[in-house]
Amino acid sequence: MKQLQTLLAIAVSGVLLNCGLTASAQNGKPGYATVVRVEGEASYSLDGGHTKFPLVAGKYLAAGSCIYTGDSGVVDVVLGKSMALPQAPSTPDRISLAVDAPVRGLVGYQPTTEQNSIRLMASSTLAIDKLNTISSGADSVSDTELDLQQGSIYASVKKLSPAAQYLVKTPTGIAGVRGTEFVIALNKNGTIKDVAVYKTFHDDGLVLAVVSPSGATETFLIKDGEIWEPGNHGPRPLSPQLRGFLADIFRTLRTHYYQLCNFDFDRTQYRCSTDFGF
After folding, report:
1. To 10 degrees, the CA torsion angle through 170, 175, 176, 179?
2. Are the CB atoms for 127 and 151 separated by under 8 Å?
3. What is the pTM of this model?
4. CATH code at 63?
């Protein structure tokens, strides 16, 4: 597994360098994944899955954590610095303390386009391998590495500085982005089912390196409004129906008011997702 990740990281880094997108090993302060929405069954682990705890909105997780969603679970997280969210009045009758607090109270929070956010869909596993922030007043993430082990994610990544990097690893590939709204979906065996880019922010697109069935490494550049699926020679344009569906998803990730610990949001957006393989 480590050899595969090294091979793919080299392949992606080479393409990023060719595009003028140089990643740096700039040191930063530890970042956090702040859970802003939970629906259905979801949990997290701090020891590689040996011990799992129920996940609640308001929890923040550092690098080394892993998030799991059940058959009907959906989780939204914002990646960045530890956010000083306002504390709501204590309501112990509605929520219990986590075993490894801190966990915030019932609050409302609105992410913006200047923050990186992720939505984990049902039956997904996402490990946070690396999450560092640039030491400045801006809520920026300088070095992010995520490991999507199963399931699917929608991710909105702001335009990063030349010294920053954002990588998503999978069992058979790795993706690098620098200012992109994208989707990665895996098959049950961990292979990549499809990767779609809804929008880029002054960026060339998503760089994807995958291991083919023959064992060779193939690299693709998936541009604004394109989708890649195994077996195709390259990316193809999104259908109008899929583009409209993704527009709704990323609109909620960018601008929707998150009511923490309030699970009354419309689930219809998830029901139609199976039409597109996500």
Report:
1. -110
2. no
3. 0.75
4. 2.60.120.1440
**Spatial distance between the Cα atoms of 258 and 271, rounded to a whole number of angstroms:** 20
Query: Which of these ranges, 107-121, 155-169, 214-228, has the smallest mean pLDDT?
Result: 107-121
Is residue 265 classed exposed, middle or buried when 0-12, 13-18 and 19+ CB atoms within 10 A define those classes?
middle
Residue 176: closest CA among 185, 167, 163: 167
Give the DSSP letter of residue 96: P
Q: 136-158: buried (b, 16+ CB within 10 Å) or exposed (e) per residue?
A: eeebbbbbbbbbbbbbbbbbbbb
Domain region containing 178: 2-276
CB 6 within 8 A of CB 111: no
Tokens representing 261 are 């610990």
Please, what is the average pLDDT of the chain? 76
H/E element, 149 = strand 141-150
Residue 94 vs residue 63, higher pLDDT: 63
Number of domains in the chain: 1
In the three-class reduction of DSSP (H, G, I as helix; E, B as strand; rest coil), residue 206 is classed as strand
- Token pair for residue 101? 């607090």
